[in-house]
């Protein structure tokens, strides 16, 4: 059994208004070192498979088809022992 | 002419759209559930606003895999008229019938008000009853209407006159180039964030949306050589 941990964020070229608001809030709190903030999505998928290579291939397909909209979002994922 | 209003779980502007078709076009119209796999009996297919599948993951992301969407794509490829309003627009971008994507409003606020638009292309099947550059008032109601596409796509949209509506005056969501509605290259698929179906009678504050429906009817009549006797 493996678990996929998927991160989806807006592409660098796309303005992230939520990240911008959070950066402003952090500055207000005195965390001036924050240069940039990006807000994204975190997903955990429990996979019923014993083959790591196959899991990677399938999760990539899931990201491309559904989990991310690659017009505006980037994704990355890790496959970990579940 | 027969019109389909597609209903997804979570659609909420389907009744408004159905009523607008009935009131303005006066043609047979059906609600068509998202599980339907045959749209061959319809000449125009309308995707309403709402929050299909709760907008989970992304707006339109789950709805685009509904069984009916395969048929919507087929209908579009066959040249039938397909119009997506608000959530319907988001679904049409997710399924790839229209380029780009709709992001969170730049203000992060849900925008619900009457919005000024300019008709930038009155040569589409959906807008031929408007004058070129005409300024109209249509209500908006969305939290994710901030249209985005890359520069190359924007250049194509401009070159092909695919930008059909722009916000006139205030841009309520931060959309690229003030875009409020676009069509595909062929011109038979249109998506827009504003709700023309909510502006079809004077008592609705504006009836500027009526002519989208009369345009669709006129297009169909012209394509099918139906002569009308006044």
Concise overview:
Helices cover 34% and strands 32% of the residues of chain A. Chain A is α+β, with helices and mostly antiparallel strands and 82 residues long. The radius of gyration of chain A is 16 Å and the shape is elongated.
Class of secondary structure makeup of chain B: alpha/beta
Characterize the biggest β-sheet of chain B. 9 strands, mixed
| Gyration radius of chain A, in Å | 16 Å
Side-by-side strand order of the widest sheet of chain B? 2-1-3-4-11-10-9-6-7
Annotated CATH homologous superfamily of chain A: Phosphoribosylformylglycinamidine synthase subunit PurS
Number of strands of chain A: 3
State the CATH class of chain A.
Alpha Beta
Distance between the termini of chain A: 5 Å
Strand neighbour order, sheet with most strands of chain A: 2-1-3
**Number of helices in the DSSP assignment of chain A:** 2
User: Any idea how many domains of chain A?
Assistant: 1
Instruction: State the distance separating the first and last CA atoms of chain B.
Output: 18 Å
Q: What is the residue-averaged pLDDT of chain A? A: 95
Shape of chain A: elongated
Keywords (chain B): ATP-binding, Cytoplasm, Glutamine amidotransferase, Hydrolase, Ligase, Nucleotide-binding, Purine biosynthesis
Subunit structure (chain B): Part of the FGAM synthase complex composed of 1 PurL, 1 PurQ and 2 PurS subunits.
Protein name (chain B): Phosphoribosylformylglycinamidine synthase subunit PurQ
InterPro entries (chain B): Class_I_gatase-like, PRibForGlyAmidine_synth_PurQ
Chain-wise SSE layout:
The complex is a heterodimer of chains A (82) and B (230).
Chain A: E1 2-10, H1 17-28, E2 40-47, H2 52-67, E3 73-81
Antiparallel strand pairs in A: 1-2, 1-3
Chain B: E1 3-7, H1 14-25, E2 29-33, E3 44-47, H2 67-77, E4 81-85, H3 87-94, E5 101-103, E6 111-119, E7 135-142, E8 146-148, H4 151-159, E9 163-167, E10 179-183, E11 189-192, H5 210-223
Parallel strand pairs in B: 1-2, 1-3, 3-4, 4-11
Antiparallel strand pairs in B: 5-8, 6-7, 6-9, 9-10, 10-11
Helix pairs in contact in B: 1-5
């Amino acid at each position: 059994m493996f678990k996929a941990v998927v991160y989806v964020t807006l592409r660098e070229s796309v303005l992230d208004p939520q990240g911008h608001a959070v950066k402003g809030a952090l500055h207000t709190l005195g965390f001036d070192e924050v240069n940039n903030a990006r807000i994204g999505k975190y997903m955990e998928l429990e996979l019923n498979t014993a083959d790591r290579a196959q899991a990677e291939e399938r999760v990539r397909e899931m990201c491309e088809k559904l989990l991310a909209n690659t017009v505006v979002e980037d994704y990355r994922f890790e496959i970990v022992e579940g | 002419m027969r019109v389909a209003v597609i209903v997804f779980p979570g659609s909420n502007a389907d009744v408004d759209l159905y009523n607008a078709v009935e009131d303005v076009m006066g043609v047979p119209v059906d609600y068509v559930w998202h599980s339907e796999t045959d749209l061959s009996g319809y000449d125009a297919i309308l995707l309403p606003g709402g929050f299909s599948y709760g907008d989970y993951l992304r707006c339109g992301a789950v709805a685009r895999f509904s069984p009916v969407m395969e048929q919507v794509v087929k209908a579009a490829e066959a040249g039938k008229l397909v119009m997506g309003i608000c959530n319907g627009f988001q679904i049409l971008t997710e399924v790839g019938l229209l380029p780009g994507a709709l992001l969170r409003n730049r203000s992060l606020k849900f925008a619900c008000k009457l919005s000024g638009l300019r008709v930038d292309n009155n040569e589409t099947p959906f807008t031929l009853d408007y004058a070129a550059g005409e300024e109209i008032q249509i209500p908006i109601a969305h939290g994710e209407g901030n249209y985005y596409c890359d520069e190359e796509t924007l250049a194509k949209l401009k070159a092909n006159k695919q930008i059909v509506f722009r916000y006139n005056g205030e841009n309520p969501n931060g959309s690229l180039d003030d875009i409020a509605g676009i069509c595909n290259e062929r011109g038979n698929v249109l998506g827009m964030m504003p709700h023309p179906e909510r502006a079809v009678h004077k008592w609705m504050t504006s009836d500027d949306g009526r002519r989208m429906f009369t345009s669709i009817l006129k297009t169909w009549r012209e394509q099918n050589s139906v002569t009308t006797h006044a």
